[in-house]
Amino acid sequence: MCNYKRMTVEETLEIYETYMRKDFPPIELKPFSHIERMMNLGLYDSFVFYEENRLIGYALCSENKNRDAVLTDYFAIAADIRGKGYGQKVLAMLWEIYREHDMVILESENPDFFEDEQDREKKLRRVRFYEEKCGMTKCDFTTRLFGVEYVIMAKGCRAEADSALVVQKLKEIYQVLVKPEAYRQHFLIRR
Question: What is the pLDDT of residue 109?
């Protein structure tokens, strides 16, 4: 049975160094000092998911100031067990953790921007997984953040009913997550 634990800053740094540097391209990985700052402000959570003391995956999440919306900033399943149903289980646990929130938002790399056909297929598989296996709704807008193009997906009754509200909540989260100048220069919403 999968369980989870909320991580401390020190434990999050260990996950960052051990796993995140391998699981995410450098362009997508923010400096750990930003994660630590957000955790110390109480607006950033990190979780490790495990089964019988074995790491299954992890998720790092950022909330808006009202604490009614959360962005799954980083999410990964251990490389050797991907494709075995753990992603669904872990995300279901994450939805339960944030059940009082209006919505949970997730970014997935946009398959319209790809290096080669293999990269495009990988990105398409991720989007399908979130939609078909995890019940997320693909929003009618995309974003570009620090040069990376994303499809935005959301879960929660208010998210599924109101795309404009998802835009508003995502802006609120990023206004907390990044410095104002970086937000103005590097955050773009496309409809």
Answer: 95
What is the C-alpha to C-alpha distance for residues 51 and 90, in angstroms, rounded to an integer?
11
185 burial via Cβ count (<10 Å: 0-12, 13-18, 19+): exposed
Residue that has been written with the tokens 């997730």 in this structure: 106
**Inter-residue contact 76 to 61 (CB < 8 Å):** no
Q: Is the dihedral of CA 146, 152, 154, 158 positive or negative?
A: positive
Query: Taking the complete model, does pTM exceed 0.90, yes or no?
Result: yes
Name the token pair of 97: 């953790």
Judged by DSSP in three states, 179 sits in coil
Strand 137-145's sheet: what is its strand order?
Answer: 3-6, 44-51, 54-63, 69-77, 103-109, 148-155, 137-145, 187-190
Among 50-64, 71-85, 130-144, 153-167, the minimum mean pLDDT is found in 153-167
DSSP for 125-153? HHHHIIIIIT--EEEEEEEEETTEEEEEE
- What is the pLDDT averaged over residues 151-168? 84
Q: Which amino acid is at 170?
A: L
Q: Which residues on neighbouring strands pair with residue 49, listed in sequence order?
A: 4, 57
Q: From CA 13, how far away is CA 33, in angstroms rounded?
A: 10
Choose the weakest-confidence range: 54-63, 127-136, 151-160. Answer: 151-160
